[in-house]
Amino acid sequence: MCGIVGYVGPRAPLDVLIPGLRRLEYRGYDSAGVGVVVDGRVAVVKKEGPLQRLEAALEGSGLDGAPAAAGAVCTGLGHTRWATHGRPSDENAHPHTNEDGTLAVVHNGIIENDAELRRELEVRGHVFRSETDTEVVAHLVEEFYGPGGAAEGDLAAAVRLALRRLKGAYAFVIISAREPGRIVVVRQSSPLIIGLGEGEAFAASGIPALLPYTRRMIALNDGEMADLRPDRVVITTFDGTPVRHEPFTVDWNEEQAEKGGFPHFMLKEIHEQPEVWRQTLRRRLLEDGTVDVTETGLMGGPAAVVRRIAIAACGTAYHAGLVGKTLFERWARIPVDADLASEFRYRDPLVGPDTLTIVISQSGETADTLAAMRAAKERGSRTLAIVNVVGSTIAREADAVFYTHAGPEIAVASTKAYTTQILALALLALAFARERGTLDGAQARALGRELQRLPVLAEAALAAEPAVRAHARRLAQHEDVFFIGRGLDYAAAMEAQLKLKEISYIHAEAYAAGELKHGTLALVTDGVPVVAIATQPPLLDKTISNIREVQARGAWVIGVATSGEGRVGGVPVGGGAGVGAAAAASGKTAAAVAGTAASGAAVNAAAEADWAPTAPALSGVVEDVIAVPATHPFLQPVLTAIPLQLLAYYAAVERGHNVDKPRNLAKSVTVE
Ligand code: G6P
Q: 423 and 282: one domain?
């Protein structure tokens, strides 16, 4: 999620690099740097903090503003860093160079095998200066590019050889003082755009960076690299096969460009979910479904002896915590309290050395969450923070940190941060369950493999957008909306109502469906909208009864139910014609079938539970149904969130509100 800019051509490079980085600033970053080829080396200037600090450091550096001599070709690259490996600091900022500073690289994403490569390169005499995975790329390329290397003196060939060794998701730009006038760029699961000019070429991680210079662009695909010179661009696959790309012309205005073509950051961030979920899961979920969270330092001892977990968080993060409570309790069989941080801190919480306190915070700066964490620490509890912003206060003070890697979230209403928080909790709960023996290896791996499917299912969930938009239009006409659900559907309802009210200003309330009759039902009258979330097979019959209850009072019900594939006995079923449909046809609900299949499962029935899509059981009950792709019921809230985020978004748009900056609210609440 960092920003990348590269340039080769006659302009003074800083005139392209700095404005380019500024146009990527909206993505958020914690440090910035540039590298320019001068006098046989790449002169690098980099600084932690905002771009102004970099600019101040550049003043008088000899790189600033000096126009290139007539006819000269300049080569440079720049970067804004959003820390993932290593804290934000001058040393960890990009560019990173080889030892003699003749080669420089800027990078987005993660090199997964950096530790292994670093060890190997150190043995071969390379000395590293930063904690980043990026630096490995500079040294590795140098191995092939330097004197006696297999691709000596040919940067593109050396990069190609290095790529064979790199694992992960990355985009990078690399330049060499030994070949000025050339930039090599690479894309593997992280965006990289090439800009085509007259006698110049550009590269960037996002279109906005290049708009002032050119509107003719090429978007590299995964597994492609490009060799850029002022007068020609050669694109190949990693193995060297030439690739032809037709350039496209961008007609976005400035504002659209910042938002990646979306009208609001919130919509952009909703759509980013499949991609960022992959980032969250990467490295922590092995191919066979095994979870690896050794980074927390809690495995191999601490997790096994924890007697209780206390979760504390605010707002949306608290709602993720409610899902986490179920995951830890049902999979790892640990008692969990989930609290609002503002309550936890003042109730003299009963936590101590046998308790693990998990705090969840996108920003890592929320005052109440920080105070809750400190209160837990004072009482001797070990603390684990699930945080998005690297190097934030909560991340620094926690005993262990688990980053969500959702990238910068700009819209005040949290979307991708929330779903990645749930994924983080799912990974941790599975790891705890293995450590404590409450799930066996096969059960845990099966759930891990289900987690792996989620990014693809998220893409399918986004396809409901047009249908959801139509419901949102109607919903926007109302002043009160109820969200109901049971179990994890209730947790999902809590988040859905918050999303709706914070941006559309429609009064919304979430109720545990079974609790309605104890009061709230009095408010359900003719035409009142009720969003009934019914994705949990074992609770489906009960939820349907509650739907009938509100329908009997004249409510307009929008059902949220699952479709697609379920699993019975580990075998996929459904896709519209499986257990769910068959059950509906036979008058039995999917829940009844799933319940029967699941009953009697050993130690942890929760892991073994079969499930079937719930949408068929709702047909004939509810007219308006939003279908969400089915997954294991415990993971379902992460997918259910997507259409409900879209529902809130479109209701707010319909009402003409400032979606990204709702009234009275702030992205990061650093006061009590
Ligand atoms: C604010 C934001 C919410 C967020 C909450 C907690 O209220 O508007 O979107 O959920 O703070 O923030 P955190 O950064 O701790 O997750």
A: yes
pLDDT for the residue 416: 97
User: Do 45 and 172 fall into the same domain?
Assistant: yes
> Contact at 8 Å (CB) between 481 and 475?
yes
- Per-residue pLDDT band at 280 (split at 50, 70, 90): very high
Q: Are residues 530 and 636 in the same domain?
A: yes
Tokens of 102: 């003749």
- Ligand 1 contacts CB of residue 188 (under 6 A): no
Same domain (yes/no): 230, 278: no
Cα–chain center distance at 282: 11
Written as six digits, the tokens of 489 are: 């559907």
Cβ atoms of 398 and 384 within 8 Å: the answer is yes
User: Is 416 designated active site?
Assistant: no
Taking residues 451-461, report their average pLDDT: 96
Q: Which domain holds residue 296?
A: 265-439
Q: Is residue 666 part of a domain?
A: no
Question: In this predicted model, what pLDDT tens digit does every residue of 32-91 receive, in sequence order?
Answer: 999 999 989 999 999 999 999 999 999 988 786 555 566 789 999 999 998 877 888 999
Taking the CB of residue 294, how many other CB atoms lie within 10 A of it? 11
If one residue of 340, 668, 670, 672 were mutated to test the ligand 1 pocket, choosing by the most ligand atoms within 8 A of its CB, it would be 668
Tokens describing residue 57: 């450091």
Q: Supply the pTM of this predicted model.
A: 0.74
SS3 content of the chain, % helix, strand, coil (to 5): 40, 25, 40
Q: What is the pLDDT of residues 656-667, one digit of tens each?
A: 998 998 888 777
| Residue 538 vs residues 42, 89, 535, 589: alpha-carbon distances, Å | 62, 50, 9, 10
Ligand 1 pocket, residue 80 CB under 6 Å = no
Look at the block and give the residue holding tokens 């980032």. Answer: 279
What are the start-end ranges of the E strands in 207-322?
Answer: 216-219, 224-229, 232-237, 248-249, 308-313
CA-to-CA dists, residue 68 to 23, 101, 183, 413, angstroms: 23, 21, 18, 45
Label residue 581 by pLDDT band (50, 70, 90). Answer: very low
Give the whole-angstrom CA distance, residue 177 versus residue 197.
22
- DSSP class of residue 386? E
Contact between 441 and 623 under an 8 Å Cβ cutoff? The reply is no
pLDDT at res. 521: 86
Catalytic residue of the set 2, 268, 416, 499: 2
pLDDT of residue 265: 93
> What is the Cα–Cα distance from 144 to 650, expressed in whole angstroms?
52
Peptide bond into 95 cis (omega under 30): yes
Whether residue 59 sits in one domain with residue 132: yes
CB 158 within 8 A of CB 178: no
**Token duo for residue 325:** 């409570």
Distance from residue 641's CA to the centre of ligand 1 (Å): 16
* Residue-wise pLDDT tens digits, 21-43: 998 887 678 899 999 999 899 99
Residue among 402, 387, 385, 395 nearest 293 (CA): 402
